[in-house]
Amino acid sequence: MFITLSGFNYNILATCESEVDRWEKNDEIKIFREYLRIPSVQPDVDYVPCVNFLKKLAGEIGLNFQVEYPSSRDRPTVVISWIGKNPNLKTIMLNSHMDVVPVFEEFWTHKPFAADIDSAGKIFARGSQDMKNVGMQYLGAIRSLKNHNITLKRTIHVIFVPDEENFGPDGMRALITTDNFKNLNVGFTLDEGYASQTDVFSVFYGQRTAWHVLFKVEGHPGHGSLLLKGTASEKVRELMDRIYDYRKKEEKKLEQNPDLMLGDVTTINVSIIKGGKQGNVVPPLIEITADVRLALCEDLEEFEKMLHKWTRDSGGNITIEFPVKEVFSPPTKIDDSNIFWTAFKNATDAMNLKIKPQVFPAGTDASYIRSIGIPALGFSPMINTPVLLHDHDEYIQADMYLRGIEIYEKIIESVANAED
């Protein structure tokens, strides 16, 4: 029964209020929102509030807590451990990062660090999808397992690293070189993925190789009123044609083959153009930076040779530098030879989840982990959800977040009990 006044349905309002009240009272949602409210924003992140928050959580759950400093004292890595029944077995690492990307607050309809919940159950905050949700879901799943008196064979290490959004030089990239990391004895890792807009969960077994290519284009300088030969801008035009001809070729691969996804092709995009001092002076130097993500099938040596050919064909006197030049990271095997993949798949099958293995199109810490021979899967349990990482009004549905804890609970139990 409901009462309508001036066309307003008060029954709907009551329903919305009761749902919001339910979400706000949920202990896991409270914990998640508290974490989201810590503004650990790049580029100058203060990680101390995150570390203190995680220390409190670890103590409440009854887990071991320690902080590592693989690069500097202001770049801490948190290691929260649940010791298994057989500590000598290879361990499971559940990785997440504490930092988030900047926000343009004027484009948000909710304060980006308020963690507001609207009447539809959307939790708005920077980091709600990338990836404070996953870090808290790991701990929520472990909390539930412990509350049900479940013990696991393998030790679990829940890792919270800094600076992933800055390519991880002081985070995972530094951590894997330390003796303390080797002592963790990691055999398998779960890391972040991203939302799926369908009812199929995305599972990432590899990722493209990231390069940032800086072209320094030199040319004839002079007065802007002249028709000079061999100017830097003329060469830039030729170079840009080659860049975007290649980009168009890769676009066509996707258009012509519906089975391919973005992670299966190479992408190149010009991200920075710099040059010139004054409007009537032809500059002697123009710099172009291109963001390149190389497909797993790409021959990196041949691709680099092609870049140098572009510089010659564009007029010469163009040099190349690589501000970022990742090495190839081999994909994780997703067959019966990988006991952890089998355990992961058994868990998702038991929950009747539809999954699609694919290549991650951007970058995550999993690349560093795979590069040292440790299998890793990227997985963020969100379906029927728009991909909003790094976007305005980033959000996750409250019920989807809670469902993710249940999913991780089954997956963690399965992989941590995997038989050698």
Structure description:
With 420 residues, this protein is an alpha+beta fold. 34% of the residues lie in helices and 24% in strands. The protein folds into two domains: 292 residues, Aminopeptidase (3-Layer(aba) Sandwich), CATH 3.40.630.10; 97 residues, 2-Layer Sandwich (Alpha-Beta Plaits), CATH 3.30.70.360. The protein has eleven helices and 19 strands. Helix 2 packs antiparallel against helix 4 and helix 9 packs across helix 11. The relative contact order is 0.17.
Largest sheet: 6 strands, mixed
By secondary-structure content and strand pairing, the structural class works out as alpha+beta
Order of helices and strands: EEHHHEEEEEHEHHEEEEHEEEHEHEHEEH
Distance between the termini: 59 Å
* Fraction in beta strands: 15-25%
Q: Give a count of the beta strands, DSSP E runs of length 2 or more.
A: 19
Give a nutshell description of this structure.
With 420 residues, the protein is of the alpha+beta class. 34% of the residues lie in helices and 24% in strands.
Highlighted features:
420 residues; alpha+beta; Aminopeptidase; Alpha-Beta Plaits; 2 domains; 6-stranded mixed sheet; 4-stranded antiparallel sheet; 19 strands; disordered N terminus
Write the layout of secondary structure elements.
Elements: E1 4-5, E2 8-9, H1 10-25, H2 27-36, H3 48-61, E3 64-68, E4 77-82, E5 91-97, E6 116-117, E7 122-124, H4 132-147, E8 156-161, H5 172-175, H6 179-184, E9 186-191, E10 201-207, E11 209-218, E12 222-223, H7 232-256, E13 267-275, E14 281-282, E15 285-294, H8 300-313, E16 318-325, H9 339-350, E17 355-360, H10 366-371, E18 376-378, E19 395-397, H11 398-416
Parallel strand pairs: 5-8, 5-9, 9-18, 10-17
Antiparallel strand pairs: 1-2, 3-4, 4-8, 6-7, 7-19, 11-15, 11-16, 12-14, 13-15
Helix pairs in contact: 2-4, 4-11, 9-11
